[in-house]
Amino acid sequence: MRLGKAIAVCAAVVLGASACASAGVIPEDTIVIGLDEDSTGPGASYSTIAGKTVRMTVDLINQAGGINGKQVELVVENDESSPTKTPSIIRKLVDHGSSAVILATGSGSVLQAKSILQQSKIPAIAPVVLSDAFASAPDNDFSFMIPNSLKQYAQVYCGAFEKMGYKSLGILGDASASIDGIIKTLRPALEKCARVTGVEKAPVDAADITAQVSRLAETEPDAILVASIGGHFEILAHNTLSKITPQTQRFSLASIGNQPASWALADPKALSGMVYMGSLSENNPRTAELRRKVQAVKGPDYQLTAYDAQAYDAVMMLAEAIEIAGDHRDRTAVRDALQQVSALPASFGQDGLTLSFSSQDHLAPDSLCGLVLVEFGEDNKPAHPWDSYQPPCG
After folding, report:
1. Sign of the CA dihedral 113, 117, 118, 123?
2. CA torsion sign, 182 to 185 to 187 to 193?
3. Number of helices and strands (H, E) in the chain?
4. Rounded distance, CA 273 to CA 275, Å?
5. How many C-beta atoms surround the C-beta of residue 311 within 10 A?
6. Closest-CA residue to 121 (of 145, 91, 147)
7. CATH at residue 114
8. Whole-model pTM?
9. 253 and 141: one domain?
């Protein structure tokens, strides 16, 4: 990919150089990409991470000469991860002349976007959503996603449970719309390999979940899965679990591993031994390359997250599609070109992971190699890949 090579040699990046386009006529020499970023709602803890990296990547593209010689302009709207607001946000981005949309928002909102994307015939890529339903039929003609899906998460969890001899599982989740959808998707797949002893939920802003954790502990599961959007709830969950059921193996979704600011809020050793579904591997040289780019913008001490890598790859796949399509104003042509993007080396996952779309498959990862089980250490930081089990590649 010519654009990718050009970006690789860019030495300087200025965050925020991409201005938000104003409504009106878009010049022919400008390519507009819409960004639906939850910057104030329950998904803000991860959406803003992805959003900043989308901006950075657009800046890199522009410094490398743009796409087909045209500069890229970013239009940003905020749906607050509220599914009721998402359709109007998509319409605003369409009205701004966007050739495509990047959906950095909650799962509930992303799913609500499907029908309006279909009606508007505008392609959208979701860099952080996990719900298989977004990229799957029906009405998925314009819906694409970057991470491995929840069904693939379930495959990996089940592989781990079988390896460890876990026969039963308790689930502790927050009561957000996004997590409610995730649990509904995950549970049937997990029940193929483990008996779910109970599901307990609490509000995202709960101050005490002792009762919920105690009820879950009474069901005596072999392992417990924490499903949350991260932030306050995730730390409260592990602080409470570490006290009430310290011997039970804990698993988590990706959120906790991608929110370094939360780790310091955990009680001493509260995260120790917990295994989360990560998407970064030190053996992937493209991850190291992206870390250097991001740290040049966000500071040398910045902790790279999967949200950064997946957001970067989303923009790069979209940029290649626009390059292939030629006419960025023809949104259906951009969609058709997205379905031709193939074997793009990924910035996340294990070394060798590639990303592809086709008319039959709108899920980017070409294997389970986009997932890495990572164990937290006693310092409440991710320590290393979990020694007990890792997903197979190929």
Report:
1. negative
2. negative
3. 13, 14
4. 6
5. 30
6. 91
7. 3.40.50.2300
8. 0.83
9. no
Q: Is position 256 within any domain?
A: yes
pLDDT higher than threshold 80 for residue 11: no
Q: Identify whether 60 is part of a domain.
A: yes
User: What is the domain count for the chain?
Assistant: 2
Residues 239 and 102 in one domain: no
For residue 21, pLDDT over 60 is answered with no
106 lies in the same domain as 18: yes
Cα atoms in the Cβ-side hemisphere of radius 13 Å centred on 102: 34
Residue entry with tokens 């995260």: 271
Confidence of residue 6 (pLDDT cuts 50, 70, 90): low
Task: Look at residue 217 and tell me if it is in a domain.
Answer: yes
Specify whether 346 is located in the same domain as 380.
Answer: no
What region does 148 belong to: left with phi over 0, alpha with psi -120 to 50, or beta?
beta
CA–CA separation, 179 and 193 (whole Å): 21
- pLDDT at site 261: 87
- The CA angle 382-55-233, to the nearest 5 degrees, is 40
Per-residue tokens: 102: 């990047």
Domain of residue 70, residue span:
2-147+282-363
